[in-house]
Specification:
The chain is an alpha+beta fold. It has 10 helices and 13 strands.
Length: 358
């Protein structure tokens, strides 16, 4: 029977480390009480670095960034932000794909799946990638848009379906997010805390039937009832407007406890319990999200170490994040290790799949 495998994962981030610069800048947007709360939350966030295609520049001093993109009192409108996405995204994608080491096998790619929720353009990012790489003209393209942090899992599900339909298929999956493109000038504490989590990043993945890397098994999604307003991502005149409620971790922990307690094969754990999972590749939506997964499933303190390491090094890169976690795991996992990947997105939806190291 044909099995689709994640053979290799390449990653890339822009060169500007903006985390500490943004924390300093955010304090200047808030009044004294909110700034004090923000500082405490930033210290507890367990994030050390976040990268952006835009340098912070002199925003803290009230001037402009290095690209004259963010100017106090005159942040760019949606049109200028989308133009920046079209200009920047293809190059970052090319870096991540180069890290795959495809060398002369680019012409063998039969399918291209691109997931992104931080920009729109037509021709799309998928077509820009195909042109830059010189992919075959009959490449089968799929664009997964606006599914948020969970989008990597549906993208891999599409890749798996392509390989199961044609064992000769070679699928390139790209998850690219320019989250810092949507910084807002705000005095709202919750909004500032949301932007304190996000960074830019791209992951490129090769999926084939060749038995190398991680063998993908079954995929399963679960919508958490009455949570549709907790994660939202709206298009406004001045950019995409992210709302990430403080109630998200609690809802995740509760849903996972209920899933663990049901004990039948209809849940995310397929009735096997947490003991059936050796590797937990969980999207690091934030420290409290990872704490919620650990608490909800009753996991050991080190079970989410790879996810916490990616969060510390890069922040939340939306759909690309879980692929960074899988890449970190792939090098050290022993043959036969069983894994579960999990990411949460608007809806609120948990997207999961099981895998095994070959």
């Amino acid at each position: 029977m044909t099995v689709a495998h994640i053979n290799r994962i390449g990653t890339a981030v822009p060169k500007h480390d903006i985390h500490h610069g943004f924390v300093d800048y955010a304090r200047t947007m808030l009044d004294a009480r909110k700034a004090a709360v923000f500082s405490r939350m930033a210290e507890r966030a367990a994030i050390t670095h976040r990268y952006s295609h835009l340098a912070m520049g002199d925003l803290v001093e009230g001037e402009v960034d290095a690209q004259d993109f963010y100017r106090r009192g005159a942040f760019p409108d949606i049109g200028r932000r989308m133009a920046q996405y079209e200009k920047t995204a293809p190059g970052l994608a090319e870096e991540a794909i180069a890290a795959l080491g495809l060398n002369g096998s680019v012409a063998e790619i039969t399918h291209l799946v691109v997931a992104s929720c931080t920009g729109f353009t037509a021709p799309g990012l998928d077509q820009h990638i195909a042109w830059r790489l010189g992919l075959r003209p009959d490449i089968q393209r799929t664009l997964v848009g606006f599914m948020g942090c969970s989008a990597a899992v549906p993208a891999l599900r599409i890749a798996q379906a392509a390989v199961l339909a044609d064992p000769a298929a070679r699928v390139l999956v790209v998850n690219l997010e320019l989250c810092t493109l949507h910084l807002q000038e705000t005095g709202d504490l919750e909004t500032a805390l949301t932007f304190m989590l996000f960074g830019d990043g791209c992951a490129a993945t090769l999926v084939t039937a060749e038995p190398e890397g991680f063998a993908m098994a079954d995929f399963r999604a679960a919508t958490i009832p009455q949570t549709e307003d907790l994660i939202t991502w709206d298009i406004g005149a001045q950019g995409f407007l992210m709302h990430l409620s403080g109630g998200v971790p609690g809802k995740i922990a509760q849903a996972l406890r209920e899933d663990l307690a049901r004990g039948d094969d209809g849940g995310l754990l397929r009735g096997e319990g947490t003991q059936a999972v050796d590797l937990w590749a969980v999207h690091g939506g934030g420290r409290t999200v990872l704490d919620a997964v650990e608490s909800g499933f009753g996991l050991a303190p080190d079970a989410l170490a790879p996810s916490r390491a990616v969060l510390a090094a890069h922040g939340n890169m939306s759909s690309a994040t879980v692929m960074f976690v899988l890449r970190r795991m792939m090098a050290d996992a022993v043959a036969g290790a069983r894994g579960m990947a999990m990411a949460f997105g608007p809806g609120m939806v948990a997207e999961t799949f099981r895998f095994r190291k070959v």
